[in-house]
Structures are given as C-alpha cells and as structure tokens.
Amino acid sequence: MPTRRILVTGGAGFIGSHLVDKLIEEGHRVRVVDNFDKQVHGNTKPSHLNPEAEYIELDIRNRDKLKRCIKNIDAIFHQAAVVGVGQSTYQIERYIDNNIRGTAALLDVLANEKNSVKKIIVASSMSIYGEGSYSCPKCVKVECKIRNLEQLKKRIWEMKCPNCGRIVKSVATGESKQLTPTSIYALTKLQQEQITLLVGKTYGIAAVALRYFNVYGPRQALSNPYTGVCAIFSSRIKCNREPLIYEDGLQTRDFINVKDIVAANLLVLNNSKADYGYFNVGTGEAVSILTIAQLLTKLYKKTIAPKIINKYRIGDIRHCYSDITAIKKLGFKPTVKLEDGLKELVAWGINEEARDLSLVANRELAKRRLRF
Ligand SMILES: NC(=O)c1ccc[n+]([C@@H]2O[C@H](COP(=O)([O-])OP(=O)(O)OC[C@H]3O[C@@H](n4cnc5c(N)ncnc54)[C@H](O)[C@@H]3O)[C@@H](O)[C@H]2O)c1
Ligand SMILES: [Zn+2]
User: What atom in ligand 1 is closest to the CA of residue 185?
Assistant: First the structure.
C-alpha cells in the first residue's frame, strides 16, 4: 500500500482517533484538524492523541485557516461533526451550522484552493434512513414512516403496516431504502453525505460515504450524555445507577465495533471500486437496547437491573439494522463479536472517569415535551 499524506477532520474524537492510530500504523502521514469540542472532550485534551500525528486545533468552519491544512494532502477522512440525535432537536442552528456549513467550508476550500486531494471519505450515518426496512405478513416489503403519536401514546411500540395495520417485522436495511431522516442531526448527516458526493463528482475527487450504524468501543466520551447508548449506559452503571431504557427495551439497532469501522475506512481508501459510492457499515445483526444494558451491567459486575421507563422520545425509530451486501462485495467483513467488543469497552471504561449527565439530557427533552 502506498504511503499517503492524510487529513482526518475530527481526528481527536472517538472514531477519528482509532482511525488515526491505524493510519500511522500502516505508515501514512497524518494531520488532524479538530476543535476539541468541550461537550466531547471536557476541558482537557484527550490522552489518546497519537504522538506521531500532527494536530491542528481548529474549527473546520474557519475557512481561511483550513486552507493551510489541506496543503500537501492526498486524502481526507471527514469525521468532524457534532453528534447527538436528541440534542439536535432543540439545538437546530448549532447542528446545522457545525455539520452542514462545516462540510461546505471543507469542500469550498477543495474547490477553490490549489491542492492535491484525490479522495475524500465522509462519515455518514444510519440515521439518514429514519425507520429501517420492514416486511408485512400480508403486503410483503413495506415502507414505514415514523410511528404516529396516537399509537405511541397508547404505548404500542411495534411498527404497524401502513397498508393493513398488521404488526410488521424488521428486515435488513439496504442502501436503496428511501431516506427519511427524523432528526436535525440525521438531516445534517444526509447533507454531509450528499454535499461530499456531489462536489467530489464535480471536481473528480473520488468521494465515498460510509453509513456507520451504531459504533461502540473504547474512547467513546463517557460523560457526553447526548450520544452513544453504550457510553451513556456505561456512565450510569459506573455511577451505580440503573440504565434508563426508553419504550420497552425491545427496539433494536446494529452495534458495530470501532475496529471494524476503521477497517471499512481503510478498505475504501484503497479500493477505487468504492469511488462515488455510499455503503452501509454495520454487522448485519439486530440487537435490542435491553440486551445491551444487560450485557454491560454484567460486564461491569454490578447487580443493578436496567429500568424500563416506557417513555418515547420524539424522533426515535423502532428498528434498523444493516444489509451489508454492497460493502461485502468490496471485501469487508465485520470481525468483532459483540460480547468481545463490549468486554474491551468495559476493560477500558472501568478506569475512566464518568459523570452521569443523562438526567440533564432527559430533563432538556422533557422541558420541551420531546418525550412523554
Ligand atoms: N458514534 C457513532 O455511533 C456514529 C454513528 C454514525 C455516524 N457517526 C459519525 O462519525 C463521526 C465521528 O463520530 P464520533 O462518534 O467519533 O464522535 P466524537 O464526538 O467522538 O468525534 C467528533 C470529533 O469532531 C470534532 N469536531 C466537531 N465539530 C468540529 C468542527 N466544527 N471542527 C473541527 N472539529 C470538530 C470533535 O471535537 C470531536 O473530536 C461523526 O461524523 C458522526 O456523525 C458516528
Ligand atoms: Zn400489510
């Protein structure tokens, strides 16, 4: 594999930092641009910064300074974003400005300044689908919109068929599913993906969007109550509080280990068949939120039982897991088993400081009637 000069935006964050380590290990030269957002990092720089990478503390919306950061760069991994589905429902301007204008600034610089960038890989998200795909026992494959409020107020959690009203079964979601984001965060991820693919095509910069499913692993910000259910549950459990579970806990997601996410990024960097495409990156397996809470509690060796609060958060979807046929064709294979990955998360988390701020996040939703 040729040595490249690589820029990672958001490279001090959870996923970005693992990516930086792997790129250095593979012999690439790595520059990071990160604004060390306080919500993620608190007031101190993270201890996981790689001494062999160059770090530039900068907000990507600072177009003038960003100009200098793309000098002599061959490829970009664009990971920088504010991440939080619930929080984005009321911090609309912050999310749109940071994620959409941030991406626009990066691409504007590529379009207008002399540079040698040949490839850009953007971190997209499963959230852009909204609800996952479903199959009805009568109508077969159906497109489901977000559940209606009437149903949710009656605490009927499962998805109903929009044609016949029967309860439908969750099936794997492929890239061709209609994109119906149900939060501002999701909308910004969709924009990030589309802006990157479009500008890439226009200027002949090979762009690729990776639609990550739920990523977990060491270095997830444990005290950030707005993102990452594994991190949120970890900080509750560490503080001897029961994980709080919305709905009945049987809603499912697709949990993919950060190592596999990094592998997918490297795979598409080195495979021109991925160029101008968008790919799901998940395990292809659905796991309930309750299972995650129970596994984590057990691994932290605590006896507290998760608390099912039987409440709904506006915008939450019921089920979504990935169909990974497309990226498998490029050679991708998830390698980390959930139990092993969670074990590693806990081995790291046990020595980390964690402040449980989940009640603050929940109160902010309740105050605005965004949960009931
Ligand atoms: N964690 C997941 O489950 C998941 C799932 C799907 C997609 N993603 C996407 O993956 C990417 C990385 O997420 P993560 O979980 O590592 O989050 P993270 O918060 O740990 O990392 C994001 C990093 O970006 C930086 N950043 C934010 N805004 C910036 C700006 N304007 N300028 C410069 N730096 C900025 C932050 O300081 C942070 O270090 C994001 O784009 C996110 O939307 C994450
Ligand atoms: Zn039906």
Answer: 43
Any ligand 1 atom below 6 A from CB of 222: no
Instruction: Count the helix, strand and coil residues of the chain and give each as a percent rounded to the nearest 5.
Output: 40, 20, 45
Instruction: With a cut of 90, say whether residue 264 has pLDDT above it.
Output: yes
Task: Write down how long the chain is.
Answer: 372
- Whether 193 lines ligand 1, by a CB cut-off of 6 Å, is no
pLDDT above 90 covers what percent of the chain? 93
- 115-138: average pLDDT: 98
- pLDDT tens-digit readout, 34-86: 999 999 999 999 999 999 999 999 999 999 999 999 999 999 999 999 999 99
Here the tokens at position 218 are 């060491």
Please report where in the chains the tokens 């503390």 appear, as a residue.
57
Query: Residues 293, 11, 272, CA angle at the centre, nearest 5°?
Result: 100
Question: May I ask the CATH class of domain 5-132+173-312+320-367?
Answer: alpha beta
Cβ within 8 Å of residue 240, ≥6 positions away: 302, 304
- Which ligand approaches the C-alpha of residue 169 most closely? 2
Q: Give residue 161 CA to ligand 1 midpoint distance, Å.
A: 35
> Which pLDDT score, from 0 to 100, does residue 224 have?
86
CA dist 125 and 99 (Å) reads: 13
End-to-end CA distance of the chain: 53
Q: Where in the chain is the domain with CATH 3.40.50.720?
A: 5-132+173-312+320-367
- E strand or H helix at 232, and its extent? helix 229-238
Burial class (CB in 10 A: 0-12, 13-18, 19+), 244: middle
84 SS3 class: coil
Return the closest-CA partner of residue 221 out of 356, 360, 115, 339.
356
The token duo for 368 is 């605005």
Q: Using one digit for the tens of pLDDT, what is the confidence trace for 127-182?
A: 999 999 999 999 988 999 999 999 999 999 999 999 999 999 999 999 999 999 99
Tokens of 259: 């190592």
CB under 8 Å to 58, separation ≥6 — which residues? Answer: 33, 34, 35, 65, 66, 69
Ligand nearest to the CA of 168: 2
